[in-house]
């Protein structure tokens, strides 16, 4: 499984929105500048996130985007599934697979499904709020200046 640019940028944008929105609307331009991502590309990403109910928007001079989902219960897996589709290392076996696919069925059960389960477990255990808290800790730690 490889997470595409859409998934990576989308997760960055959602975390950015959660960190910097302060309960209000944030413009795509602000997110694009902070993250170094094209605003046009973010529009496509946010359209998918809006359709999924993860963000909401308002137009106008005070407009922008804000989270529509609860950051404490929305996981990295939720965001990536919206932007990437189902997350798996191989395509699922077709139902009409014949006897010649015994090895593939064996590998599906003993390898691929276990990898998929572990990936899902990690992605579903990390919430947006977890990432926001860790990001803020990192930023606070990096802003400390020591004088000798």
Q: What's the rounded overall pLDDT mean? A: 90
Order of helices and strands: HHHEEHHH
**CATH domain class:** Mainly Alpha
Give the count of structural domains: 1
State the share of residues found in helices, binned by percent: 55-70%
Briefly note the CATH topology name: Arc Repressor Mutant, subunit A
Query: Strand arrangement, largest sheet?
Result: 1-2
Number of strands: 2
The coarse silhouette is: globular
Which spans have pLDDT < 50 for at least 5 consecutive residues?
none
* Distance between the ends: 48 Å
Residues in β-strands, percent: 5-15%
Radius of gyration over alpha carbons?
19 Å
Helix count?
6
Judged by helices, strands and strand pairing, the structural class is mainly alpha
Question: Do you know the CATH architecture?
Answer: Orthogonal Bundle
CATH H-level superfamily: Winged helix-like DNA-binding domain superfamily/Winged helix DNA-binding domain
What does the largest sheet look like?
Answer: 2 strands, antiparallel
What is the strand and helix layout of this fold?
Blueprint: H1 5-20, H2 28-35, H3 39-51, E1 55-58, E2 64-67, H4 76-84, H5 102-125, H6 128-143
Antiparallel strand pairs: 1-2
Helix pairs in contact: 1-2, 1-3, 1-4, 1-6
């Amino acid at each position: 499984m490889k997470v595409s640019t859409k998934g990576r940028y989308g997760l960055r944008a959602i975390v950015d929105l959660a960190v910097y929105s302060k309960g209000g609307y944030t413009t795509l331009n602000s997110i694009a500048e902070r993250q170094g991502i094209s605003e046009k590309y973010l529009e496509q990403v946010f359209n998918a996130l809006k359709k999924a109910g993860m963000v909401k928007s308002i137009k106008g001079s005070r407009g922008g985007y804000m989270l529509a989902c609860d950051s404490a219960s929305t996981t990295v897996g939720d965001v990536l599934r919206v932007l990437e589709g189902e997350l798996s290392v191989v395509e699922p076996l077709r139902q009409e697979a014949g006897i010649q696919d015994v090895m593939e069925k064996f590998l599906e059960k003993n390898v691929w499904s276990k990898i998929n389960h572990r990936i899902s477990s990690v992605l579903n255990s990390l919430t947006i709020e977890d990432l926001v808290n860790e990001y803020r800790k990192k930023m606070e730690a990096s802003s400390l200046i020591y004088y000798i």
